[in-house]
Specification:
The protein is of the alpha/beta class. Helix content is 43%, strand content 15%. Keywords: ATP-binding, Kinase, Membrane, Nucleotide-binding, Serine/threonine-protein kinase, Transferase, Transmembrane, Transmembrane helix.
Length: 844
């Protein structure tokens, strides 16, 4: 039997789930999942107290209410800087933007007034007052002087990752001192690398460095996220940023460097191995990012000491709070301070978040991400995938749940222990989610399969019963459709095999191929299905597709001699052999399996000869007149048993007769004796007289449509009901149906016909059977039609001078152009023929 398709197996489903997780990891779709796991571990690890060596001078809400909205006059910041410098801090870091100059209102007017005073004598006092006023209004200069006096000062360089990008980002000359020089391992600049591999260092599109006057006296400046970056969450903080072809340090790195009384020249960056500060390696990941610890503090003691700048300016703090401490000055008051999300689930202003990062960096208290962390993640995803594919499906559901739970708990505990005890973060949330979701998916599949199996069994039984009913009724397509919805087993294959044989008998070889192919897909060794497939494919190649319902032979011939397929059936008749070929189809010998009666079956593929409305009209006329002809009962008319249509093949089943058609005796070298010919013609005339009285016109009287048994001397007229098709004149291919040489003038003209037209054709037939020649002969069809309609036929005694004159008289009357001067009935012609036969007997 057929194996379960691979796409329905547990291992394939496990492969799909694992593959999706692997792709999601590569595309960084699972980043929120890893972030959630990191946040959980960071919260457990946040119970440690922070450091009091980092102090935040906060421009808080109270200060803003007293000194006005931000930005403040920079002479106020200069005052704060001088006060801080007097307390001897380790370093002062301004986490504030200074990208534009600050010009006091009226400064230009004051400078113009001062220029006028310099031209006038006796205005010294006014000039000194103007100079003092100008000095007070030059806030940038005042702030710059305070920075020069303070010493170790670090300024922030805000950045944007979604701003307008210059074609070639450059640094101004005064900004060159802020870039890192000791950078090795330059990244691959190729388009392939940039397209498919992530950048090793976070790049920025635009920076907002401090103005030149301030930057000149700052010991350093670093890139800082002030809430304008693309990623406001602070889980990983870059130590190095790429700006065009330049590499800039982060604000956190610069503050830590100057806190340790080091310089920028002692920062060494290797793009593949990490960052070193005075030969001390910093625990950064492969993108030069650190994962700082965020502190909660203990009891009422905050993790980071925060002092309001208002207290500083009002001299409310002692120097011990500032001395040898790392000082960070920044906004904390709303709405000017941005809000950054941290792993603790709390939001805090950038200066406070930076304080945590600086503390973590100075204390070497960061979470380490090993260089092999990504490989560990991919390896575990693969291991979990293999577990889902090959191990879990082997166990019962309860055992599988226990095993998966042990794996899940073990990995999760290992994850937390690594973060808490080893301060090591491994991105294991994706493998854990794969284990959990994969197990749920497989469990759901097994549960649904069990439920569906029960439903399928019930539906299969119902479908099989319905299919058998359709099969017995001959509705093979419906039967096959229902069989396909059944569960496949040995009994069903036997039923399908019998269905395929029935398709063969119905000449639907392409559908038989479909059935046997379906059997083969489930059991390739079943019975002789391979041989059946081979023979049916060979036979179906001899057919052309007719329409969506069936196929028909291109020449109307049925396959009756191929031992590899069942003998075909037309309607209820099984075809035994081929008897002959006609203008529109074939004649076969068949039999009715129910009563064992042999019949001759004439087939016509009307759809190949006519199309459109004409096809509909022809079919209607055919069945109507065939039905009428079927009611004819005469010893000289063949009996019609059945008429119908099968696979677009119209057919008439009639009595199977002994003998042969009269064409064999219409040749000059094989003519019947004149008296025997008259006997035959008289029988035909009597048959036509009977048919005409029943309102049936044959329309195609000719030797080929007469079957003559010479042993019994009986002739029978065939093709009543079929000959009506000759009135359609031409088929879609331009072929004229019927035999023009035997047609009457009115039939050629397309006029309405009656029995006298058949008697004209019988006269032509009598002429031919006595002479072996047709009365009208021409080189073309047009000439022939003209002769039949207008010219007199040659006297028969020119060919047979031995015949009595009455023969000429009979033929002349039968072939007369005018209907009223022709024989008016078959009985009239019979009497004349009988009298002439008597004279013929006397003469011979």
């Amino acid at each position: 039997m057929k194996q379960v398709p691979y796409w329905k197996t547990d291992w394939f489903l496990g492969l799909i789930v694992a593959g999706l997780f692997l792709l999601a990891g590569v595309a960084d779709i699972t980043r929120p999942l890893e972030n959630a796991g990191y946040d959980l571990g960071a919260r457990f690890a946040a119970s440690q107290p922070g450091s009091q060596d980092v102090v935040v001078i906060a421009i808080d809400q109270d200060a803003i209410e007293q000194f006005g909205p931000w930005p403040w006059r920079r002479d106020l910041l200069a005052r704060a800087t001088r006060q801080l410098s007097a307390m001897n801090p380790a370093v002062i870091g301004f986490a504030l933007p200074f990208e534009s100059e600050q010009r006091a209102v009226g400064l230009e007017s004051l400078q113009a007034l001062k220029a006028e005073l310099e031209k006038q004598e006796g205005s010294r006092q006014l000039l000194e007052l103007a100079n003092q006023t100008e000095e007070q209004m030059q806030t940038d200069r005042d702030f710059a002087n305070s920075l020069r006096s303070a010493g170790r000062v670090v300024l922030a360089i805000p950045y944007a990752r979604n701003g307008a990008v210059r074609e070639t980002p450059v640094l101004a000359d005064y900004q060159e001192k802020f870039r890192l020089d000791d950078v090795s391992g330059k990244p691959d600049e190729s388009l392939w690398y940039q397209r498919f591999l992530p950048e090793p260092v976070q790049s920025v599109d635009r920076i907002y460095p401090p103005v030149e006057m301030l930057a000149e006296y700052a010991n350093g400046a670093g890139v800082m996220n002030l809430g304008n970056g693309k990623e406001p969450a602070l889980r990983a903080e870059p130590l190095v940023f790429r700006y065009g072809e330049h590499y800039l340090p982060s604000f956190t790195l610069m503050v830590a460097t100057h806190t340790r009384q080091l310089s920028m020249s002692q920062i060494s960056v290797h793009l593949e191995h990490g960052v070193e500060l005075a030969d001390q390696r910093i625990n950064a990941d492969n993108k030069l990012r650190i994962y700082p610890r965020f502190y909660r503090g203990k009891e009422d003691k905050p993790p980071i000491k925060v002092i309001s700048i208002l207290d500083l300016l009002e001299d409310k703090i002692d120097s011990e709070s500032i001395s040898n401490k790392t000082i960070l000055v920044g906004l904390t008051g709303s709405p000017y301070a941005a809000s950054l999300q941290t792993p603790l689930g709390e939001s805090m202003p950038p200066v406070l978040a930076t304080a945590h990062s600086v503390t973590s960096l100075l204390n070497d208290d960061m979470f380490e991400v090993p260089y092999w962390a990504s490989w560990a993640q991919w390896s575990l995803i693969i291991v979990m995938g293999l577990y889902l594919m090959f191990i879990l499906p082997r166990f019962r559901m309860s055992t599988g749940v226990a095993l998966s739970a042990l794996l899940l708990i073990g990995l999760f505990n290992g994850y937390l222990i690594a973060m808490l005890a080893k301060t090591t973060w491994l991105p294991l949330m994706t493998p854990l989610a794969l284990l959990l979701i994969g197990h749920l998916v497989l469990a759901m599949k097994q549960f649904l399969q069990g439920q569906l199996r029960h439903v399928y069994l019930e539906l299969s039984g119902a479908n099989q019963a319905l299919a058998q009913q359709y099969h017995s009724q001959g509705q093979l397509d419906q039967a096959f459709e229902k069989y396909r919805h059944c569960i496949v087993d040995e009994p069903l294959l036997n039923q399908l095999y019998n269905l395929g044989l029935d398709y063969e008998r119905k000449r639907q070889y392409n559908k038989a191929v479909a059935v046997f192919k379906y059997i083969e897909s489930h059991d390739a060794s079943f019975s002789d299905v391979q041989e059946r497939l081979k023979h049916n494919r060979e036979v179906s190649e001899q057919f052309v597709i007719g329409n969506s319902k069936s196929s028909a032979p291109a020449d109307g011939t049925l396959i009756v001699s191929n031992p590899g397929v069942q003998k075909p059936m037309i309607g209820r008749y099984m075809i035994d052999s081929e008897l002959g070929r006609g203008a529109m189809g074939m004649v076969y010998l068949g039999h009715d399996p129910k009563i064992g009666r042999s019949v001759a079956i004439k087939t016509m593929s009307l759809s190949q000869e006519f199309e459109g409305d004409k096809l509909v009209d022809v079919k209607e006329r055919f069945f109507r007149e065939a039905e009428t002809a079927g009611r004819l009962h005469h010893p000289n008319i063949v009996t019609i048993y059945d008429v119908g249509e099968d696979q677009d093949l119209s057919y008439i089943a009639m009595d199977y007769l002994k003998g042969e058609n009269l064409m064999a005796y219409a040749k000059s070298d094989n003519l019947l004796p004149a008296r025997e010919t008259f006997d035959v013609i008289i029988q035909i005339a009597e048959a036509l007289d009977y048919a005409h009285n029943e309102k049936v016109v044959h329309r195609d009287i000719k030797p080929a449509n007469m079957i003559y048994d010479r042993d019994s001397g009986v002739v029978k007229v065939t093709d009543f009901g079929v000959a009506c098709l000759t009135d359609t004149s031409k088929t879609k291919t331009g072929t004229i149906l019927g035999s023009p040489s035997y047609m009457s003038p009115e039939q050629l003209a397309g006029a309405k016909l009656d029995g006298r037209s058949d008697l004209f054709s019988l006269g032509v037939m009598l002429y031919q059977m006595l002479t072996g020649e047709l009365p009208f002969i021409a080189d073309s069809l047009a000439s022939l039609m003209y002769k039949i309609a207008n010219e007199k036929h040659p006297d028969i005694r020119m060919f047979r001078p031995d015949l009595p004159s009455c023969v000429s008289q009979v033929i002349n009357k039968a072939l007369h152009k005018e209907l009223d001067r022709r024989f008016q009935s078959g009985a009239q012609m019979t009497k004349t023929l009988t009298r002439c036969r008597e004279r013929l007997t006397k003469k011979h």
